[in-house]
Design brief:
mainly alpha, two-stranded antiparallel sheet, 2 strands, rod-shaped
Length: about 120
């Protein structure tokens, strides 16, 4: 999906208001008719063409304090990485996804030793 600047959107709508001919505006600005219609509707409903900032949802995609995480992993005994999410949240006060923990463990170079615990 192409991203258009606010100036482009305003210019296209100004041109549309001047000519009242959507097909010509779409050709001139190389946009689809659906896009132009969406811009017109958005301006009618909200009075603005600015996009809203997106809210991040779900768990953070990274570990905030890498050094503290390294210390945490060294002192914890765990058989499976799946044991870590609960312990991590309890220790740090926020949760991260299982995939983030898997990447972090591999980045630290930890492997299962003697079939029992990671170290």
């Amino acid at each position: 999906m192409a991203k258009y600047s606010l100036e482009t959107k305003k210019a296209a709508l100004a041109r549309y208001r001047k000519t009242d001919y959507k097909a010509e505006v779409c050709k001139e600005f190389n946009i689809s008719r659906v896009t132009l219609d969406a811009w017109i509707k958005k301006e009618e409903l909200t009075g603005s063409l600015e996009t809203k900032p997106r809210k991040r949802q779900g768990a953070p995609t990274h570990i905030k304090d890498w050094k503290a995480f390294q210390d945490f992993v060294k002192k914890q005994k765990f058989q499976n990485i799946s044991d870590l999410p609960f312990l991590f949240e309890k220790e740090f006060g926020y949760s991260v996804s299982y995939a983030v923990l898997v990447k972090a463990i591999h980045k630290l170079g930890l492997k299962r030793r003697k079939g029992r615990f990671y170290s």
